[in-house]
Amino acid sequence: MGKKVVVTGVPGVGKTTVINGAMERLAAEGVAYKAVNFGTFMFEVAKKENLVSDRDEMRKLEKDVQKRLQQAAASGIAAMSGDANIIIDTHSSVKTPTGFLAGLPEWVLRELMPDIVVLVETDPDQILMRRLGDASRARDMEGYRAIAEHQEFNRAVSAAYAMYTGCTIKIVRNENFLLEQGIDDLVSVLR
Ligand code: AP5
Protein backbone atom coordinates (compact mmCIF):
# COMPACT_ATOMS: atom_id res chain seq x y z
CA MET A 1 0.00 0.00 0.00
CA GLY A 2 1.36 3.45 -0.96
CA LYS A 3 1.72 6.42 1.38
CA LYS A 4 -1.07 9.00 1.35
CA VAL A 5 0.16 12.45 2.29
CA VAL A 6 -2.17 15.42 2.48
CA VAL A 7 -0.40 18.79 2.15
CA THR A 8 -2.29 21.84 3.40
CA GLY A 9 -1.75 25.52 4.11
CA VAL A 10 -3.48 28.86 3.76
CA PRO A 11 -3.78 30.27 0.20
CA GLY A 12 -0.45 31.59 -1.06
CA VAL A 13 1.75 29.98 1.62
CA GLY A 14 3.51 28.06 -1.14
CA LYS A 15 2.12 24.49 -0.84
CA THR A 16 2.35 23.80 -4.56
CA THR A 17 5.86 25.27 -4.79
CA VAL A 18 7.12 23.06 -1.94
CA ILE A 19 5.34 19.98 -3.33
CA ASN A 20 6.87 20.50 -6.80
CA GLY A 21 10.36 20.87 -5.30
CA ALA A 22 9.91 17.72 -3.21
CA MET A 23 8.59 15.70 -6.17
CA GLU A 24 11.64 16.68 -8.25
CA ARG A 25 14.02 15.72 -5.45
CA LEU A 26 12.28 12.36 -4.90
CA ALA A 27 12.13 11.55 -8.61
CA ALA A 28 15.92 11.98 -8.75
CA GLU A 29 16.19 9.45 -5.90
CA GLY A 30 13.86 7.02 -7.69
CA VAL A 31 10.96 7.50 -5.23
CA ALA A 32 7.72 7.84 -7.19
CA TYR A 33 4.82 10.00 -6.01
CA LYS A 34 1.68 11.11 -7.80
CA ALA A 35 0.57 14.65 -6.88
CA VAL A 36 -3.08 15.64 -7.19
CA ASN A 37 -4.74 18.96 -6.50
CA PHE A 38 -8.02 18.59 -4.60
CA GLY A 39 -9.23 22.02 -5.75
CA THR A 40 -8.74 21.02 -9.39
CA PHE A 41 -10.99 17.97 -8.91
CA MET A 42 -13.65 20.22 -7.36
CA PHE A 43 -13.23 22.83 -10.07
CA GLU A 44 -13.74 20.31 -12.90
CA VAL A 45 -17.18 19.42 -11.49
CA ALA A 46 -18.07 23.04 -10.65
CA LYS A 47 -17.16 24.20 -14.17
CA LYS A 48 -19.20 21.42 -15.81
CA GLU A 49 -22.21 22.53 -13.77
CA ASN A 50 -21.61 26.22 -14.65
CA LEU A 51 -21.30 27.11 -10.96
CA VAL A 52 -18.08 29.13 -11.29
CA SER A 53 -15.75 30.48 -13.92
CA ASP A 54 -12.56 30.45 -11.82
CA ARG A 55 -11.32 28.36 -8.89
CA ASP A 56 -11.24 31.28 -6.46
CA GLU A 57 -15.03 31.59 -6.72
CA MET A 58 -15.57 28.12 -5.24
CA ARG A 59 -15.01 29.13 -1.61
CA LYS A 60 -17.83 31.68 -2.00
CA LEU A 61 -20.41 29.09 -3.13
CA GLU A 62 -23.19 28.06 -0.79
CA LYS A 63 -21.84 25.73 1.92
CA ASP A 64 -23.82 22.65 0.86
CA VAL A 65 -22.66 23.08 -2.74
CA GLN A 66 -19.02 23.22 -1.58
CA LYS A 67 -19.60 20.08 0.48
CA ARG A 68 -21.03 18.24 -2.53
CA LEU A 69 -18.03 19.25 -4.68
CA GLN A 70 -15.73 18.20 -1.83
CA GLN A 71 -17.35 14.77 -1.65
CA ALA A 72 -17.03 14.33 -5.43
CA ALA A 73 -13.33 15.28 -5.31
CA ALA A 74 -12.60 12.90 -2.41
CA SER A 75 -14.19 9.91 -4.12
CA GLY A 76 -12.55 10.79 -7.46
CA ILE A 77 -9.11 10.95 -5.82
CA ALA A 78 -9.68 7.75 -3.83
CA ALA A 79 -10.72 5.94 -7.02
CA MET A 80 -7.62 6.97 -8.96
CA SER A 81 -4.98 6.63 -6.24
CA GLY A 82 -4.84 2.81 -6.01
CA ASP A 83 -1.64 1.56 -4.36
CA ALA A 84 0.53 4.50 -5.49
CA ASN A 85 2.29 6.96 -3.17
CA ILE A 86 0.14 10.04 -3.41
CA ILE A 87 0.36 13.70 -2.38
CA ILE A 88 -2.95 15.55 -2.10
CA ASP A 89 -2.58 19.33 -2.33
CA THR A 90 -5.51 20.83 -0.40
CA HIS A 91 -6.67 22.86 2.61
CA SER A 92 -7.16 22.01 6.31
CA SER A 93 -9.87 24.63 6.26
CA VAL A 94 -11.35 26.99 3.70
CA LYS A 95 -12.31 30.53 4.60
CA THR A 96 -15.89 31.04 3.37
CA PRO A 97 -18.16 34.08 3.83
CA THR A 98 -19.93 32.24 6.69
CA GLY A 99 -16.80 31.03 8.50
CA PHE A 100 -14.17 28.29 8.27
CA LEU A 101 -15.25 25.15 6.40
CA ALA A 102 -13.33 21.97 7.29
CA GLY A 103 -11.26 20.84 4.31
CA LEU A 104 -11.12 17.23 5.54
CA PRO A 105 -14.43 16.47 7.24
CA GLU A 106 -15.36 12.90 8.10
CA TRP A 107 -16.67 12.04 4.62
CA VAL A 108 -13.40 13.18 3.03
CA LEU A 109 -11.17 11.46 5.61
CA ARG A 110 -13.07 8.19 5.20
CA GLU A 111 -12.22 8.22 1.48
CA LEU A 112 -8.62 9.38 1.78
CA MET A 113 -7.41 7.96 5.14
CA PRO A 114 -4.11 9.89 5.04
CA ASP A 115 -0.94 8.61 6.73
CA ILE A 116 0.35 12.15 7.24
CA VAL A 117 -1.22 15.62 7.17
CA VAL A 118 1.38 18.31 6.45
CA LEU A 119 0.73 21.94 7.38
CA VAL A 120 2.86 24.34 5.34
CA GLU A 121 3.23 27.57 7.30
CA THR A 122 5.21 30.78 7.38
CA ASP A 123 4.94 34.25 8.90
CA PRO A 124 1.67 35.98 7.93
CA ASP A 125 3.43 39.06 6.51
CA GLN A 126 5.32 36.83 4.05
CA ILE A 127 2.03 35.20 2.97
CA LEU A 128 0.44 38.61 2.47
CA MET A 129 3.33 39.71 0.23
CA ARG A 130 3.10 36.48 -1.81
CA ARG A 131 -0.63 37.00 -2.34
CA LEU A 132 -0.04 40.58 -3.45
CA GLY A 133 2.65 39.43 -5.88
CA ASP A 134 0.50 36.77 -7.59
CA ALA A 135 -1.69 38.46 -10.21
CA SER A 136 -2.87 35.10 -11.63
CA ARG A 137 -5.27 34.50 -8.73
CA ALA A 138 -8.16 36.33 -7.05
CA ARG A 139 -6.90 35.82 -3.51
CA ASP A 140 -8.56 37.21 -0.39
CA MET A 141 -6.85 40.37 0.79
CA GLU A 142 -6.45 39.98 4.54
CA GLY A 143 -4.23 41.50 7.17
CA TYR A 144 -1.61 39.89 9.42
CA ARG A 145 -4.06 39.05 12.18
CA ALA A 146 -6.59 37.29 9.91
CA ILE A 147 -3.90 35.17 8.25
CA ALA A 148 -2.43 34.26 11.66
CA GLU A 149 -5.88 33.27 12.90
CA HIS A 150 -6.45 31.08 9.83
CA GLN A 151 -3.13 29.29 10.42
CA GLU A 152 -4.07 28.76 14.09
CA PHE A 153 -7.45 27.34 13.11
CA ASN A 154 -5.74 24.97 10.65
CA ARG A 155 -3.60 23.54 13.48
CA ALA A 156 -6.65 23.08 15.69
CA VAL A 157 -8.78 21.36 13.06
CA SER A 158 -5.84 19.15 12.00
CA ALA A 159 -5.70 17.76 15.55
CA ALA A 160 -9.22 16.44 14.93
CA TYR A 161 -8.03 14.79 11.69
CA ALA A 162 -5.27 13.02 13.68
CA MET A 163 -7.81 11.84 16.26
CA TYR A 164 -10.08 10.38 13.57
CA THR A 165 -7.49 8.67 11.36
CA GLY A 166 -4.39 8.11 13.51
CA CYS A 167 -2.36 10.12 10.97
CA THR A 168 0.62 12.19 12.06
CA ILE A 169 0.69 15.97 11.70
CA LYS A 170 3.87 17.52 10.33
CA ILE A 171 4.52 21.25 10.25
CA VAL A 172 6.78 22.42 7.41
CA ARG A 173 8.00 26.03 7.39
CA ASN A 174 8.29 27.65 3.95
CA GLU A 175 10.08 30.90 4.71
CA ASN A 176 11.35 33.54 2.33
CA PHE A 177 14.85 32.64 1.06
CA LEU A 178 14.54 29.23 2.76
CA LEU A 179 12.46 27.30 0.22
CA GLU A 180 15.10 24.55 0.00
CA GLN A 181 14.78 23.97 3.76
CA GLY A 182 11.01 23.57 3.42
CA ILE A 183 11.52 21.12 0.55
CA ASP A 184 14.05 19.13 2.66
CA ASP A 185 11.51 18.88 5.47
CA LEU A 186 8.75 17.66 3.18
CA VAL A 187 11.07 15.17 1.47
CA SER A 188 11.99 13.72 4.87
CA VAL A 189 8.38 12.72 5.56
CA LEU A 190 7.68 11.53 2.01
CA ARG A 191 10.78 9.34 1.61
P1 AP5 B 1 -6.00 25.78 -4.43
O1 AP5 B 1 -5.75 25.88 -5.86
O2 AP5 B 1 -5.28 24.75 -3.63
O3 AP5 B 1 -5.81 27.26 -3.88
P2 AP5 B 1 -4.66 27.96 -3.10
O4 AP5 B 1 -4.55 27.67 -1.69
O5 AP5 B 1 -4.80 29.39 -3.43
O6 AP5 B 1 -3.41 27.25 -3.65
P3 AP5 B 1 -2.34 27.82 -4.48
O7 AP5 B 1 -1.77 26.66 -5.22
O8 AP5 B 1 -2.74 28.95 -5.32
O9 AP5 B 1 -1.39 28.41 -3.34
P4 AP5 B 1 -0.17 27.71 -2.70
O10 AP5 B 1 -0.19 27.78 -1.23
O11 AP5 B 1 0.01 26.36 -3.29
O12 AP5 B 1 0.97 28.70 -3.14
P5 AP5 B 1 1.94 28.66 -4.42
O13 AP5 B 1 2.89 27.49 -4.37
O14 AP5 B 1 1.12 28.87 -5.65
O15 AP5 B 1 -7.55 25.59 -4.10
C1 AP5 B 1 -8.52 26.32 -4.81
C2 AP5 B 1 -9.84 26.23 -4.14
O16 AP5 B 1 -10.28 24.85 -4.08
C3 AP5 B 1 -9.88 26.68 -2.68
O17 AP5 B 1 -9.97 28.08 -2.56
C4 AP5 B 1 -11.18 25.99 -2.23
O18 AP5 B 1 -12.30 26.73 -2.67
C5 AP5 B 1 -11.13 24.66 -2.97
N1 AP5 B 1 -10.62 23.56 -2.13
C6 AP5 B 1 -9.41 22.97 -2.19
N2 AP5 B 1 -9.34 21.98 -1.29
C7 AP5 B 1 -10.55 21.94 -0.63
C8 AP5 B 1 -11.10 21.11 0.39
N3 AP5 B 1 -10.42 20.12 0.95
N4 AP5 B 1 -12.35 21.37 0.81
C9 AP5 B 1 -13.09 22.38 0.27
N5 AP5 B 1 -12.62 23.19 -0.71
C10 AP5 B 1 -11.36 22.96 -1.16
O19 AP5 B 1 2.84 29.95 -4.08
C11 AP5 B 1 2.27 31.23 -3.97
C12 AP5 B 1 3.33 32.28 -4.35
O20 AP5 B 1 4.36 32.29 -3.36
C13 AP5 B 1 4.03 32.01 -5.69
O21 AP5 B 1 4.21 33.21 -6.36
C14 AP5 B 1 5.38 31.40 -5.26
O22 AP5 B 1 6.38 31.62 -6.20
C15 AP5 B 1 5.64 32.13 -3.96
N6 AP5 B 1 6.50 31.37 -3.02
C16 AP5 B 1 6.33 30.09 -2.63
N7 AP5 B 1 7.29 29.73 -1.74
C17 AP5 B 1 8.08 30.82 -1.56
C18 AP5 B 1 9.23 31.10 -0.77
N8 AP5 B 1 9.79 30.19 0.05
N9 AP5 B 1 9.76 32.34 -0.82
C19 AP5 B 1 9.23 33.29 -1.62
N10 AP5 B 1 8.14 33.10 -2.41
C20 AP5 B 1 7.57 31.87 -2.38
Automatic annotation (TrEMBL):
Task: Say where the protein is mainly found.
Answer: cytoplasm
**Quick check: keyword Transmembrane helix in the entry?**
no
Q: Which InterPro entries match?
A: Adenylate_kinase_AdkA, P-loop_NTPase
* EC number assigned by the record: 2.7.4.3
Q: GO: which molecular function terms?
A: AMP kinase activity; ATP binding
The answer to keyword Transferase applying to this record is: yes
Its annotated compartments are:
Cytoplasm
Which ranges form a coiled coil?
A: none
Keyword terms: ATP-binding, Cytoplasm, Kinase, Nucleotide-binding, Transferase
UniProt superkingdom: Archaea
Which residue ranges does UniProt annotate as crossing the membrane? none
Residues reported to bind ATP: 9-17
GO CC annotations, alphabetized: cytoplasm
Under catalytic activity, the entry for this protein gives:
AMP + ATP = 2 ADP
Q: Which family does it belong to?
A: Belongs to the archaeal adenylate kinase family.
HAMAP family given in the database record: Adenylate_kinase_AdkA
Protein name in UniProt: Adenylate kinase
